[in-house]
Amino acid sequence: MLAQLASTLGALQLPLRISLPDGESLDLAQSPTVELRIRDPALLAELQRPTLDALGEAYIEERLDIHGPLPDAMAIADRLSQSLVINAPGDPPATAPHDRQSDAQAVAYHYDLSNSFYALWLDPEMVYSCGYFRHAEDSLARAQVQKLDHLCRKLRLHRGDYLLDVGCGWGALARHAAREYGVRVHGITLSEQQLELGNQRVRSQGLGQQVRLELRDYRDLPRSEQYDKVVSVGMFEHVGHANLDNYFRILAEQVRPGGLVLNHGITARHVDGRPVGRGAGRFIGRYVFPHGELPHLATAVGSMSEQGLEVVDVESLRLHYALTLQHWSRNLEDRLEQARALVGERSLRIWRIYLAGCAYGFAHNWMNIHQVLAVKPLPGGGHHLPLTRADLYT
Fold it and tell me: Where does the record place the catalytic residues (predicted)?
């Protein structure tokens, strides 16, 4: 079988070694940087058509081991699948259920894994979203503080404002906005573990009078135009295509006329929202983000507009997210034994592939991430935003 693989793959000149349990091995180029150690010999036949989700699943199920730098392994897997898999247009857009129960279960699956596990590879503030790099050499911690401040400046936060944070995570943005801008913040999440740690940090930093975090579904918010600003970071990926209009309608109902709504989220490459081809989207949906659905930017902007929000600014942070994920992946790789003790071998394998694969995917334009700022116009259509963006960078 190795001879057959050599015939199929040899022309690709991949820096890859394939090793069998009996010690036999095949180098596909001189000086390979990555070794696939095959545990299940039946897998060799499947390497004739190696979709990205099949390769990832084989690693998770311990049918193979990967030795060598994961970024190199991602590039090799991509080249393999590009060369040997017919690049079909990809799966149709997902149509998963998105009721309160299924959304809460999906959030718990992903976010309630272990606060200690996330702390191994996130920054000290526990920001689980794209950083903002003023320079490529910025540390992860600096990039995340810069991102929090970038959001606050885009929202034009002022002392005394009341901010709604939808999908507040561990509360980093809520604490930053309260501490640095003097605002009151109401944050909601569906993750019990995030809420517990977030509230601990609110109390320890003496912000209990300004910040209130609670377990609540966005669909259960009262509709009373009580907030000056609304922000949602890394949340609308979980909403679902069918619920997008309702989601933005609820955000619009929360904010007072003249107020701002900022949505920060991952967006699809394809206009119809279908996942990227060759199995990468299927892998993420199966193992990482159950029921996750990525709308295209055009869909998100259209939905916001239909719900009475005027989109005034759009910024792509795709390359910022590639850098962020590279930091996360390296941090996890540096702490594998600690991570294995916290979440076990199978979950660790999922996260190793997920972080390294997403770093590669964002760098290669498989998906994007956008901050979309909108205003709820005043009666008559006006608003109080500056005429230029100059204040963001002063």
Answer: 358
